Here is the input.
Amino acid sequence: MNIVVCVKQVPDTATERKLRSDDNTLDRDAADGVINELCEYAVEEALRLKEAHGGEVTVLTMGPAKAADTIRKALAMGADKAVHLVDDALHGSDVLGTSYALAQTLKKIGFDLVVLGSESTDARTGVLAAMLAERLSVPQLTFANKVEIDGTSISIQRVTDYGYDRVEASLPAVVSVVEKINEPRYPSFKGIMAAKKKPVEKLGVADAEIDASQVGLANSWSEVVDFAAAPPRAAGTVVKDEGDGGVKTAEFLASKKFV
Amino acid sequence: MSEILVLVEHVEGQVKKVTLELLTLARKLGTPSAVWAGEGYSPDAQAKLAEYGAEKIYVADAAEIGDYVVAPKAELLAQLVSEKSPAAVFVAATAEAKEIAGRLAIKIDSGVLTDAVGMEDGLLADQSIFGGGVNVHSRVTKGTPIVAVRPNATPIEAAAGAGAEERVTVDVSDAAKGARVVERVKQEKGARPELTEASIVVSGGRGVGSAENFAVIEALADSLGAAVGASRAVTDAGWYPHQFQVGQTGKTVSPQLYIAAGISGAIQHRAGMQTAKTIIAINKDSEAPIFELADFGVVGDLHQVVPQLTEEITKRK
Ligand SMILES: Cc1cc2nc3c(=O)[nH]c(=O)nc-3n(C[C@H](O)[C@H](O)[C@H](O)COP(=O)(O)OP(=O)(O)OC[C@H]3O[C@@H](n4cnc5c(N)ncnc54)[C@H](O)[C@@H]3O)c2cc1C
Ligand SMILES: Nc1ncnc2c1ncn2[C@@H]1O[C@H](COP(=O)(O)O)[C@@H](O)[C@H]1O
Here is the structure.
C-alpha cells in the first residue's frame, strides 16, 4: 500500500506567533518551526497501517526550505521517504491554493491512502482533508479516531458531537485523524541516524505540474486586510479561598448578572 | 437586498441556536435564505427559521443526503449557488460545516473564511487567531464569499421573514457517494446544552481527580444551566468523553461565561476558550497560567470551592 502522509511545519505554539507587516502572511521566520502536533498522529497512523498491511510511507510537505527539519522528524519516526514541495511561488497560498498544490503533487506521486492531521495549529482551518478528497475525487474519511483496512476496503470511526459515525469506503481515500487515535512514537537514535540517509525529493511548481496562476499570495481566493494584537484582557481579581471562595465567586457572578 | 444562503444546523428536527445567530447576522448584510439539508424538516422548523428572518427556505430533505459524508451537502449548496447567485454563503464553524464549506469553495471556485467571530459591511470577516492573540480582518477576493461563523459570536434577535418554502431536489452524484455512513453511534447525551452552543460552560481538569468527582462539575453546570467541558488531561484519562474536550484538538467555545476548575491553562486548552466573554478560574496553584485570563479567580481547592458555589447559586435562585 502506498501511503502518503501530509505533514505541515508550523510555528511553535509556545513562542510568540506573528503575522508579517509587509504582506499580512504568517511570519515563519519569527518563531521556531515544529511539526504540527496532529501531523505526528497522522505519521504514527500511517506507520501502523504500513506495519499491519505492508507498503511504503511517503511524507509530503509543502513549505519553505526550513520545513526540511519537519520532514526529517517524520522520517526519523519511520517514514520511508519524502517529497518536499518548495517554491517561492507558493508563498502566501491560502487553503484553496494549498489544497490545489498538494492535490497536483499527490496525482503526480500516486497514492492508495492519504493521511492528514485534522487541523493545524497555525491556520486551524480543519478543511484541507475534505478539500483534497474533493479535488482528487476520492472518499473523504475525516476526523477518524480509528482506521481499519481490509484489502481495498477501509472503515473509520468519524468523531461527531454525539459520539461517532462508522464510515466505509474503498481505497484510494483521504483520511484525517484526531489525537485520540494513537500515541505517536518518539524517534529512536537509530531512527534519527537512518533519517539522514532517506531520500527527500524536492519538487518545484513546474515539476508538480502546478499552474502558477492558482497559487501564491497574489492569486489567493481570500486576503487578510489588516490585523492587530488583541487588546490584553483586563487584569482580573484573584482571591485566596478562606473558606468563602464559593460565596465570593457567586457574588461575582451576581454582579455580572449570571445568577 | 442581496440574498445570503444560510446552511441550517439541525438535530432531530430541531434548529440549532447557531443557525438563528447566522440568520440574525445575515439580516444585517443582506436577505437571508435558509438551506435545509437532510431529514427532519417540519412546520415547526419552518416557523422557527421564519421567526428569525428567513425570507426563503430551500428544503432538500431526502434521506440520501445524510447517508454519505459531507459531499452531498456541498453539492446541494453548489447547485443553489449556481441557480440563485447569492451574495454569500454562511455556515456554522462546526467541524462538519467547515468541511462542507471547503468542498463548496472548490466546486464554485470561491474563497472560504473559517472561524469568523463577526461580520462587517462589505462582507469583511473578523477572525481571532493564534489562540486569541491577534485579531484580523479578512475577506474573500474571488467568487461568492463562503464564511464559517463561530457559534455564540452573534446575539440572536427575532425579526419575522416570509419563510417561503421552496423544495429542492438533489441527485447525489456517484462521486459524492464514496464515503458511506453505515452507523451512527450516540454516546451519552444528557439534557445539558450542547458544548459549542452553550452560553455558559463549566469545565473540569486534572484537578478534579477522578471520573466520579466529575459529579461536582456537573452539579455546578446544572445549577447554571451550563454545558460541561473538560481538558485533555481528563479525556485522556477517560474521566469524561472526548466530545466534551475543549481546546485546540477539541471544541472551540466562545460562551458568555467559562468556568475552569482544576485546569492549569495550557496553550492548547486556551486556544479553545480564550474568546469567552467572562472567565472564572478555580485552581489551588496561584501560579497556574489560567489566572492570566481570569476575570475572577479563586486560589483554593475546587472540592471545597465548587460545591459551595453550587450551593450558593441554588440558594440565590
Ligand atoms: C497535540 C496536542 C493537542 C492538545 N489539545 C488539547 C486540547 O484540545 N484541550 C486541552 O485541554 N488540552 C490539550 N492538550 C494538552 C495540554 O497541553 C495540557 O496537557 C492539558 O490541557 C492539561 O490539562 P489540565 O489543565 O486539566 O491538567 P494539568 O495541566 O495537570 O493541570 C491541573 C491543574 O489542576 C490544579 N489542581 C489540582 N488539584 C486541584 C484541586 N483539588 N483544586 C483546584 N485545583 C487543583 C493544579 O494546580 C493544576 O493547575 C493538547 C496537547 C497536545 C500535545
Ligand atoms: N503546507 C502543507 N503541507 C503538507 N500538509 C499540509 C499543509 N498544510 C496543511 N497540511 C495538512 O492538512 C492538515 C490540516 O491543516 P489545516 O487545514 O491547515 O488546519 C494538517 O494536519 C496537514 O496534514
About this structure: Residues A 37-38, 179; B 205-207, 231-234, 245-250, 262-264, 266, 268-269, 272, 282-285, 288, 301-303 surround flavin-adenine dinucleotide (ligand 1) (CB under 6 Å). DSSP finds eight helices and 17 strands in chain B. Chain B has two domains: 3-177, 195-315. The helical segments of chain B are 17-29, 43-51, 71-84, 95-107, 214-224, 232-236, 267-270, 302-316.
